[in-house]
Amino acid sequence: MTVMPPHCRLQGLDIVLRFFRHSSAAKDRADRRARRKDKAQRRLRRIAVTPLVIALAVGIGAVSVPSMSGAQTVTKGPSGLPLPRFVSLKSDRINVRRGPGRDHAVSWVFVRAGLPVEVVQEFENWRRIRDSEGEEGWVFHSLLSGRRSALVAPWEKVESLTVHREPDSAAPAAAFVQPGVLANVYECDGTWCRIGAENWSGWIDQTQLWGVYPDEKIK
C-alpha cells in the first residue's frame, strides 16, 4: 500500500472538494435553466390559449355534450340553429382547425364527403364539430350540409347488423351491413330510422346509429 505524505493527502482532498463544489454548481445552473425553460413554455401555452378563451367569453355558443343513451340539453347558437345538432360533410377534403379562423393550425383533414359530424359550438362563420371518435375541431360553416347521414353502430364488434324491410325487429331482412357503414338517413320516428345507400335501404333501430339522437324524429 502506498502512503501519501500529509501535504499530498490534503492537496488531494482539496481537489476532490473543488470537484464536488463545481459539479454541484453546474447541476444548480442546469436546474435553473430547466425551470426557466419550463416557465417560458407554460407562458407560451397560456398565450396560445388566450384568444380561444376570450372568444368563448364573448359568445361562441353554449357547449352541450349530448349522451347517446338519453336526452341531451339543446340550446340555440348565434345562428339561431340548435346546439348540438348533427350535420354532414359537404366536401371530400375538409381541414379541421384548432380554432375558429384560417390562422389556426390544421389538426387533421377529412377526406370523405357525407360523414356525419356533430356541431357543438358556433363562432361567427365557424363551427366546432365532433366526429364519431370524439375528436373536436373547427371548420368553416359552408363546408357543412344539413343533409343527414349516419354511421351504423361503429362501436359494435359483430360481423354484421340487420337492416329490416319494416320498422320491426321481426320483419324480414332488407340488408346486412358491417359496423361503421355510412348511410343516408331518410326518416326517423323516434325509435326506428329508414336508412340506405345506392343499392339498399331499410329500417334499423335508432339507437344503432351515430348521427341521430335518441328519440329524434326526422321527416
What distinguishing features does this structure have?
about 220 residues, alpha+beta, SH3 type barrels, six-stranded antiparallel beta sheet, five-stranded antiparallel beta sheet, 1 helix, 17 strands, about 35% strand, disordered N terminus
Task: Describe the structure in your own words.
- With 219 residues, the chain is an alpha+beta fold.
- Among the domains are: 75-146, SH3 Domains (SH3 type barrels); 150-218, SH3 type barrels.
- Helices cover 24% and strands 33% of the residues.
- The chain contains 1 helix and 17 strands.
- Strands 10, 13, 14, 15, 16 and 17 form a 6-stranded antiparallel beta sheet that branches. It has a 5-stranded antiparallel beta sheet with strand order 8-7-6-3-9, with no helix packed on it.
- The N and C termini lie far apart (99 Å).
Largest sheet: 6 strands, antiparallel
Q: Averaged pLDDT, please?
A: 79
Q: What's the CATH class label of the domain at 75-146?
A: Mainly Beta
Radius of gyration over alpha carbons? 30 Å
CATH topology of the domain at 75-146: SH3 type barrels
InterPro entries: DUF1058, SH3-like_bac-type
Pfam families: SH3_4
Transmembrane segments: 44-65
Protein name: SH3-like domain-containing protein
